Amino acid sequence: MMMLSHDSVELTVTTDSLSESLLSEETRKCQAHRVKLSFLSSLTFSWLNPLLDLGYSKPLILEDIPCLYPEDEASLAYKKFSDVWDNLTKDKSSKSKQNLVIRTLAKVYLKDMLFDGTFALARTITVVVSPLLLYAFIRYSNDSTEHNLYRGFFWLVCLVVVKVVESLSQRQWSFHAKRSGMKIRSALMVAIFHKQLKLSAVARKMHSTGEIVNYIMVDAYRMGEISWYFHSAWSCLLQLLLSLGILIGIVGLGALPALVPLVICGIFNIPFAKRLQECKAESMTAQDKRLRATSEILSSMKIIKLQS
């Protein structure tokens, strides 16, 4: 307890209240409001059912939303990113200091991306296996000499199991890829914000406010999607190769001429994709100019008000 007196006015200040964190009560509420997940609920996303029921009965407010787990918070994501970044910048054995952002993200989130890749692989395999099981089931049903019902039930059960695994792996892949992207995006946004606070006057002229906003809104968001697009690229290629092999194995070499229209359509899409990329670049440049002009106008208005 501390007493301050001035002109017969006494002010009582409790030192314990000053040292107490303002976020402690909020942290305790979050810990009590976090959803406890079991294996089945995390696999099927049934932990969302109470929230969906509540949202159906009334409009949701912020207190109704479950809090993030500590590993999903931006502070922890930035701490991991900054620790690896500092180690890479201090590493004298590293000859090249280029692509530090990519190397840092690779070291921090490599395990998460590999974990996401397992679901992408499971989904790709089940997508390829499903037509084979369906083909086997159709052959069994069309075979008039086949009287073994157990074989029919076997193909049917296998088809159902494969479709269930495909659905679960697709949703788990999407969820974990977006979750990893959220961590990457949060770490980059906080890193850009901290870097902006340390910019000198010369650096601020080189990197305008519009460019920094683009870094946060566009570049950081795209980096957050790297896990999804990376796994989508190799899984689509693997699925294409496996499907082509199965098609040739069933139909024969006669399936190859059918791929010619697909290749031609892909070639025709290249100019449109390049033009779309150019339009996006022009849009980003125009947005940067607009934000730069807005920042200069606001700064000039501030100077005029101070001088008046």
TrEMBL record:
Record's keyword terms, sorted: ATP-binding, Membrane, Nucleotide-binding, Transmembrane, Transmembrane helix, Transport
Name of this protein: ABC transmembrane type-1 domain-containing protein
One Pfam family here: ABC_membrane
Domain of life: Eukaryota
Lineage: Eukaryota, Viridiplantae, Streptophyta, Embryophyta, Tracheophyta
Species, as recorded: Chenopodium quinoa
Bilayer-crossing regions: 113-138, 150-169, 226-248, 254-273
UniProt domain ABC transmembrane type-1: residue ranges: 119-308
GO molecular function: ABC-type transporter activity; ATP binding
Signal peptide segment: none
PROSITE patterns named in the record: ABC_TM1F
Any one annotated GO CC term: membrane
InterPro entries: ABC1_TM_dom (IPR011527), ABC1_TM_sf (IPR036640), ABC_transporter_C-like (IPR050173)
